[in-house]
Amino acid sequence: MRITALFFPLLLAACATVPRPVMSHAEVGVAFDRAGEVASFAEGLADPQTRRAVTADDPVRVASLSKMVTAIGVMKLVEQGKLDLTSDVSPRLGWKLRNPSFPDQPINLAMLLAHTSSIRERDDNYAIPLGASLQDLMKDPLNWDAHHGPAANYFSYVNTNYPIVGSIIERVTGERFDIWVRREVLEPMKLDACFNWPTCSDAAVARAVELDQGGKPVKDDLHGKQPDCPVFVKDPTSCDLKLWKLGENGSLFSPQGGLRISARGLARIGRMLLNGGEIDGVRILTPQSVDTLLAQTWTFNGSNGKTDDGFYCSSGNGTNQLPTSVPGCRDDMCTNGATFVGHAGDAYGLKSGLWIDRAHGVGIAYFTTGVPEKAPRDDRSAYTAAEAKAFRRILALLPH
Questions:
Q1: Judging by beta carbons within 10 Å of its beta carbon (0-12, 13-18, 19+), is residue 1 exposed, middle or buried?
Q2: What are the entry keywords (predicted)?
Q3: Which residue, 43, 51, 209, 306, shows the most beta carbons closer than 10 Å to its own?
Q4: Are 174 and 131 in contact (CB under 8 A)?
Q5: Which of 207, 260, 193, 199 is nearest to 45 (CA)?
Q6: Spatial separation of the C-alpha atoms in residues 243 and 241, rounded to whole Å
Q7: In this structure, are strands 340-347 and 350-357 parallel, antiparallel, or unpaired?
Q8: Which residues, including other chains, have CB under 8 Å from residue 373's CB and lie 6 or more apart?
Q9: How far is residue 127's CA from residue 144's CA, in Å, rounded to a whole number?
Q10: Cα–Cα distance for residue pair 231/234, rounded to 1 Å
Q11: What is the DSSP code string of 138-203?
């Protein structure tokens, strides 16, 4: 059902797009409703070295937006009775996951998905090299909040939660994380997408969007060739995937940030969610699972979490919601009263997002690359100016 006129009344007047600077790399957006794509744009370069122009079908590393897709996989396993959101995850891991300051408080999947598990990380140590183990990482007391236990429902955005989820997925499926997600989550939606490239097609690899910072490639400088090593290794360990062990290191294929997918592919995921778990006649999730996925289990109340200057003000099972009408929150992206649920991504100069408005049956997917590490902030929100521009640009293309 198409949205009616005046869905976003006075949107452009209330939140006028700032003058667009010259793009150094790429900016892509897709607007959609339940029935399909309604508008799109693709400008700039997918590969600055070869000057290849970007398209809405080119896969990019969407960073933390990957968490939402990992959570879709969790919900499939919940439907199959292999997982549940409220039980202690320790039996699924095969070892005891406990905050040493709160040893009597179990940690469940819902806490991991919503970043209320009391896990912390130092120096981005969630990237665990091949041959090392997640269990050893979690023995370090510095990777835990000594003041807030999991029962406190205290939010702190921590990537390490999702490698733990990845390990759990491997142990209950008996398969490598990226292989299982490709077959059970991505392919049923007809998506040529993947975590860390090994399961993507040669055609997808050839269209990879290179991520640059400071004029130098930092991710996916592929030029049509699979990366020499798809996982993180440290010398002297060789990049031999035969060293992979089931459930030992759920970070290897980056469930927290390694999804490669196009903006048009993200839009298909959004359409699936808008349609209660179904896309083009294929059932991915039940409507009840979609409701659970999108429900927000934590909302900022002024003191119950770290918001990153108002960026994170709600959290659920791999999703966030905006805007949040709470003092201290700066997550209003000028949606003119509409509520959007989804996830953002931020890494290696990329900003990305997939956001849906279930009430009106519409959504947006976008990414922009080449954003400097210390980029100017948006003057209306906690987002960077570059991401706010991409968000509002594609938002304005929804029918109104």
A1: exposed
A2: Hydrolase
A3: 209
A4: no
A5: 207
A6: 5
A7: antiparallel
A8: 213, 349
A9: 16
A10: 10
A11: TT-GGGB-SS--GGG--B---TTHHHHHHHHHHHHHTS-HHHHHIIIIIGGGT---EESSTTS-HH
Token pair of 252 as six digits:
């290897």
* Rounded Cα distance, 219 and 68, in Å: 21
All domains of the chain in start order, with CATH: 11-395 (3.40.710.10)
- The encoded tokens of residue 171 equal 């142990």
Contacts of 57 (CB under 8 A, 6+ apart): 207, 262, 264, 265
User: Do 374 and 383 meet the contact criterion of CB atoms below 8 Å apart?
Assistant: no
**Would you say 113 and 316 are in contact if contact means Cβ atoms under 8 Å apart?**
yes
pLDDT for the residue 6? 38
Q: What is the pLDDT of residue 5?
A: 36
E strand or H helix that includes residue 44: strand 37-47
Report the distance separating Cα 142 and Cα 132, nearest Å.
Answer: 18
| Angstrom distance (rounded) from CA 41 to CA 364 | 12
Contact status, residue 292 vs residue 277, Cβ threshold 8 Å:
no
Amino acid at 30: V
Q: What is the pTM of this model?
A: 0.94
Contact 256, 345 (CB under 8 A): no
- For the chain, which residues score pLDDT lower than 50? 1-14, 16-23
For the record, the structure tokens of 335 come out as: 């949606």
Closest alpha carbon to 168 in 43, 74, 300 = 74
Crossing angle of helices 263-274 and 66-79, rounded to 10°: 40
